[in-house]
Every structure is written in C-alpha cells, then in structure tokens.
Design brief:
Blueprint (H helix, E strand, L loop, with lengths): L2 E5 L7 E4 L8 H7 L17 E8 L9 H10 L4 H10 L5 E3 L9 E5 L8
Parallel strand pairs: 1-5
Antiparallel strand pairs: 1-2, 3-4, 3-5
Bound molecules: FE2/S2 (inorganic) cluster.
Protein name: Ferredoxin
Organism: Methylocystis iwaonis
Length: 121
C-alpha cells in the first residue's frame, strides 16, 4: 500500500496516509479524504492552484501519467520543461511539479509538498 506524506507550513507536522494502490484517486482526493487542505479551485487541471512538489521516497521513481491539461498548465506556470515531459512520457521519470487534481496515486511512497498558497508549491 503506498504511503503519501504531506508536508506544508499549514500542517503542524508531516502527515502520512495510506492510499490504495490501483485506486484511481488523485492526490487531491486523498488529501480531501484526510482533511488536508491543498489549495484548489477547478479540480480539472485548468487553474493551476493545486500545484504540488512531489518527491519519491521509496519504490521506483516513476511519473504518474501527465494529462494534456496538466502538461499545458505546468508549462504555462513555468514548472515543467519539454525535456521533463519527454522523460515522463518516454522513460516514466517523475517530474518535480504536478497538479494534485491530476496526479493519480501509484504504488510508491511519495512526499507531497505544498505551500498553502494557490499555485505556490
Ligand atoms: Fe485547478 Fe487542479 S484544482 S488545476
């Protein structure tokens, strides 16, 4: 079962929760279910307010599939390069920044960092 650890100035300490591998929950859904307030608005990859930084803690470093909306939004925020997109799509290498509403939990332990400011991972 993958562990998702949330780290933010909004939290007194890091919070680790267990996600269900193979589930199609997004990081934002997992956060909601555990009352962790990642800023968000559209929940559809279009506003960029749910920007997070993701660090792989254990398991293979792999990217959860980038949706077209996520790629476009991260590019417009200046948070992903064409090379990072290529590495994610061709070699399954996780990019540093993601959108919590688009990132589907995979079977790996990750650290999710967010500042608490919309779009300010
Ligand atoms: Fe708008 Fe995620 S909530 S992009």
């Amino acid at each position: 079962m993958p562990n998702v650890t949330f780290q933010s100035p909004l939290l007194h300490k890091n919070v680790t929760v267990y996600a269900i591998a193979g589930d199609t929950s997004t990081i934002l859904s997992v956060a909601d279910a555990n009352k962790i307030a990642i800023p968000h608005d559209c929940r559809d990859g279009e506003c960029g307010s749910c920007l997070i930084e993701v660090v792989t803690l254990s398991g293979k470093t792999m990217g959860s599939l980038l949706t077209e909306k996520e790629k476009a939004q991260l590019k417009s925020l200046g948070k992903i390069t064409a090379e990072e997109i290529r590495l994610a799509e061709v070699e399954d290498v996780a990019p540093k920044y993601r959108l919590a509403c688009q990132y589907i939990v995979r079977d790996q332990d990750i650290l999710v960092k967010f500042s608490g400011e919309p779009g300010g991972a």
